[in-house]
Design a protein that fits this description.
This protein is of the alpha+beta class. Among the domains are: 119 residues, Uridine Diphospho-n-acetylenolpyruvylglucosamine Reductase, domain 3 (2-Layer Sandwich); 102 residues, Enolase-like, domain 1 (2-Layer Sandwich). It is built from twelve helices and twelve strands. The longest helix has 17 residues.
């Protein structure tokens, strides 16, 4: 049973931000993650502020520079089926489509997908782990089948979003509004690594709301994709995945690349060295294999998640060859 809390449904963004001033307040959008966390006592809420009625935070619009502005309340189902996104930003459509189930995609929002809490079974379970104020990461000596192989620093969660790696690969920026004004930052800078602050996953202050995401206009000859491996064909998070955005020259060589891994780190894991290795070259079996090997450099698997290394290698190579 979900514990009792006060429920507020403001009529404007300004009112919503004002309501967030009280401690113990949580934002409710689609609710697919929030309500489960409250039910399972992962965290508590004295007050829930629903932003679901703020029409200004929904929709997909063409920007003046040729890019897109996507409201935080846009559902995953809308992202997966929008004709402009399917044509110009297929990685995002594929990421949205691969998330959860049809029912959850129709309810879950882009903002919620980017801000969802870790799916670590210790964090979600009855364990007073480091992220919940304890003094131990139970994954280190426990079952760590689904935990990270990159970027672990005391806490070994993986970021659960499938839209986040695609958006980072596409060069997205997020727009944030709060009591102290508004700011815009690259999505890549939105996530907080455990080594910086083990209690949170993103830079949002308690009185701030992620309002929309902007994408730059697609470059000529830009191709993108998102692929992930999961234990089941639906309703499952990535064991490992890769988002690619490649810009090709007239001769077929790569002029610009972004390679971002999912399911293997506490945030979308960008591999700059692989991007550099691809730039200036055509995608061949050799270049794809070399980039895949670079993507697993520095991996630090634990007792039960070493299989992720081979998954990353295979996924990157396969995804690169599919885009050539």
């Amino acid at each position: 049973m979900i514990p009792k809390f006060d429920y507020v449904r403001p009529d404007s963004l300004r009112q919503a931000i004002k309501q967030l001033a009280a401690s113990g307040t949580r934002i409710h959008a689609g609710g697919t993650d929030l309500l489960g966390c409250l039910r399972d006592r992962v965290f508590t809420a004295d007050k829930v502020v629903s932003i679901g009625g703020l029409s200004e935070l929904g929709g997909i619009k063409r920007a003046s520079d040729g890019g897109l502005t996507i409201g935080a309340l846009t559902t995953l189902a809308q992202l997966a089926s929008d004709p402009v996104i399917l044509k110009d930003y297929p990685a995002l459509a594929q990421g949205a489509l691969s998330a959860a189930s049809p029912q959850l995609r129709n309810q879950g929002t882009l903002g919620g997908n980017l801000c969802q809490r870790p799916r670590c079974w210790y964090f979600r379970g009855d364990f007073h782990c480091l992220r919940k104020g304890g003094n131990l990461c139970y994954a280190v000596g426990g079952r760590n089948d689904y935990h990270c192989i990159f970027g672990g620093d005391a806490c070994y969660i993986v970021h659960p979003s499938d839209t986040a790696p695609a958006l980072v690969a596409l060069g997205a920026r997020v727009h944030i509004n709060g009591a102290n004004g508004s700011r815009t930052i690259p999505l890549e800078s939105f996530f907080v690594p455990p080594g910086k602050d083990i209690t949170r996953e993103n830079v949002l202050a308690p009185n701030e709301i992620l309002t929309n995401v902007s994408l730059p206009a697609p470059a000529p000859n830009q191709r993108s994709s998102y692929r992930k491996m999961r234990a089941r064909g639906a309703w499952d998070f990535a064991l490992a995945g890769v988002a690619l955005s490649l810009r090709f020259g007239v001769g077929g060589e790569v002029e610009g690349a972004r390679v971002v891994l999912s399911g293997v780190a506490p945030m979308p894991w960008r591999v700059a060295e692989a991007e550099k290795a691809l730039t200036g070259k055509r995608i061949t079996e050799d270049t794809a294999r070399a980039a895949a090997e670079i993507c697993i450099k520095g991996a630090e698997p634990m007792e039960y998640n070493g299989y992720k290394v081979n998954l990353v290698r295979a996924l990157v190579e396969e995804a690169l060859l599919a885009l050539r």
